[in-house]
């Protein structure tokens, strides 16, 4: 009989803890702004939650107190000075039905002010590339049939500003309302719009549209665009000089002019709003040591449970259904507060130990970043690696060396020649430094870079160097050569 009772009790306990565990996991992995939105939504939905000022009351012991009948009376950790009027408690049942929706005039004005402030501080939607062109088109005094053709051409421009649809197809889509000559005129109108180069059908055409006939080497730059773009890409300047009969200095000057043109005129317009990062953690160097500061301490409201409802339960006012409803709301509020506090403690421990384990990075920079696995940090903290992963998910750290995603500090690595471990990020940084300091007239090949890294005690294969160079968008030695 006893053997049957234990599993039932365990099952009941699991069912009771499951919502708390789920909520703690969800709260832990939320980034700062998402957590703020979640807390604000909970405050709107749960009338027993309220925001209070943080106090430093030494008597706050952080424990909940219960009355003799077991009803919740207080939630510790926050000092709230509340004068509960007896008549307020007794009139609560009649008011409860509309309580979750009702607010005082002052509260409504406050919320209205916050919404207005949010509206005024919301970035305007950036104008798109196509909207910019339609705006110019609306100012043109042209026949309606030609305007329709221009609009159709603009619709068919890609995000870089190129016309990839043949004019024959565009004229056909217009049910041949215009002739080929009118189609060519419409295309010419679009190509005359800003930014220069828009409506081009190839890179050569795009660059030619941007040339200024007043440029002293106009004919030469035109020739290079028409016949030597591949040579320019491969930096074969001596061959260009030989073919054109011009000096190497003039060729380099003209190439520099071409490089100043815009090969993607439509790309200057963005259709995506700029995403701003709000770091969850700040690291500051104070009095010779790195201090970890959680930004949520200044961003997330400090929550408490309204004393009116706690007293309402302790005095057993109203009917059973109302008291049960309030009790559930208080329980939900306490779960939320516990989850936020647990998130704060876990994130602080993770960040503090992470800074300690990667101290060389904070002292010396990326080249001193150590290989680190999440499991190592989890073992050091005595928690599961999944907890570390959730604590780091989508969170950023502001440091004296810049803002980094917190998962940036966890990288793989290998054993260097000296027996130490070297992170892949640090290796890429070394590769970058070697290339930046090379002789530009005789750049290093990938084999040369392997030898230079080996001199620094870093043994990697040539194919690894090639892979990293391509990932970092560094061109080959031939294309890096400067004459």
Question: What does this entry look like structurally?
Answer:
There is one protein chain. The protein has helices at residues 2-28, 32-45, 86-95, 105-120, 129-137, 144-155, 167-173, 180-191, 203-209, 218-227, 229-233, 237-244, 248-259, 296-299, 307-314, 320-357, 359-364, 374-381, 385-392, 424-436, 446-455, 462-471, 477-480; strands spanning 49-51, 65-66, 72-74, 281-286, 289-294, 303-305, 396-399, 402-405, 413-415, 421-423. It is flat and about 95 Å long. The chain contains 23 helices and ten strands. It has three domains: 1-55 and 64-97 and 277-411, no CATH class; 129-268, no CATH class; 414-480, Orthogonal Bundle (Arc Repressor Mutant, subunit A). It is of the alpha+beta class and 483 residues long. The strands form four sheets. Strands 5-4-7-8 form a four-stranded mixed sheet. A two-stranded antiparallel sheet has the order 1-6. The model is unreliable at 1-16, 56-108, 118-122 and 415-420 (pLDDT under 50).
Poorly predicted runs: 1-16, 56-108, 118-122, 415-420
The oligomerization state is single chain
Whole-number tally of structural domains: 3
Q: In percent terms, what proportion of residues is strand?
A: 5-15%
Number of helices, where a helix is a run of at least 4 consecutive DSSP H or I residues? 23
Structural class: alpha+beta
Overall shape: it is flat
End-to-end span in angstroms?
92 Å
Mean pLDDT: 78
Instruction: Give Rg in angstroms.
Output: 34 Å
Count of DSSP strands: 10
Specify the biggest β-sheet: 4 strands, mixed
The largest sheet has its strands arranged as 5-4-7-8
Helix content bin: 40-55%
């Amino acid at each position: 009989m006893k053997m049957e009772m234990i599993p039932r009790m365990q099952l009941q306990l699991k069912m009771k803890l499951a919502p708390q565990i789920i909520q703690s996991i969800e709260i832990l992995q939320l980034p700062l702004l998402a957590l703020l939105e979640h807390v604000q939504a909970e405050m709107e939905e749960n009338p027993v939650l309220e925001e209070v000022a943080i106090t430093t009351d030494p008597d706050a012991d952080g424990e909940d107190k219960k009355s003799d009948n077991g009803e919740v009376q207080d939630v510790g950790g926050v000092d709230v000075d509340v004068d509960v009027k007896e008549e307020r408690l007794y009139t609560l049942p009649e008011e409860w039905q509309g309580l979750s929706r009702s607010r005082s005039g002052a509260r409504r004005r406050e919320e209205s002010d916050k919404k207005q402030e949010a509206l005024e501080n919301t970035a305007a939607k950036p104008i798109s590339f196509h909207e910019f062109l339609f705006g110019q088109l609306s100012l043109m005094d042209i026949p309606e049939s030609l305007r329709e053709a221009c609009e159709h051409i603009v619709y068919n421009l890609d995000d870089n500003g190129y016309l990839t649809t043949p004019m024959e197809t565009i004229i056909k889509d217009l049910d041949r309302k215009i002739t080929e000559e009118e189609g060519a005129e419409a295309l010419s109108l679009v190509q005359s719009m800003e930014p220069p180069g828009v409506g081009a059908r190839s890179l050569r055409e795009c660059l030619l549209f941007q040339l200024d006939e007043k440029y002293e080497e106009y004919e030469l730059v035109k020739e290079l665009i028409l016949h030597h773009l591949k040579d320019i890409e491969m930096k074969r300047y001596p061959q260009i000089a030989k073919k054109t009969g011009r000096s190497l200095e003039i060729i380099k000057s003209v190439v520099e002019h071409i490089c100043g043109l815009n090969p993607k005129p439509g790309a200057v317009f963005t259709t995506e709003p700029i995403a701003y990062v709000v770091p969850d953690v700040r690291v500051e160097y104070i009095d010779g040591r790195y201090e970890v500061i959680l930004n949520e301490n200044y961003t997330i409201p400090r929550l408490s449970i309204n004393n009116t409802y706690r007293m309402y339960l302790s005095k057993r006012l109203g009917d059973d259904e109302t008291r049960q409803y309030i009790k559930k709301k208080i329980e939900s509020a306490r779960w939320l507060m516990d989850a936020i506090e647990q998130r704060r403690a876990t994130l602080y421990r993770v960040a503090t130990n992470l800074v300690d384990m990667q101290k060389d990075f904070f002292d010396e920079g990326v080249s001193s970043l150590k290989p680190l696995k999440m499991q190592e940090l989890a073992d050091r903290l005595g928690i599961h690696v999944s907890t570390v992963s959730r604590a780091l998910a989508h969170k950023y750290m502001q440091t004296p060396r810049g803002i980094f995603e917190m998962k940036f500090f966890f990288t793989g690595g290998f054993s260097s020649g000296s027996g130490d471990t070297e992170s892949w990020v640090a290796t890429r940084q070394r590769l970058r430094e070697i290339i930046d300091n090379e002789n530009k007239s005789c750049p290093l090949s990938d084999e040369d870079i392997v030898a230079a890294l080996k001199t620094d005690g870093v043994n990697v294969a040539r194919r690894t160097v090639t892979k990293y160079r391509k990932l970092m968008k560094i061109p080959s030695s031939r294309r890096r050569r400067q004459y």
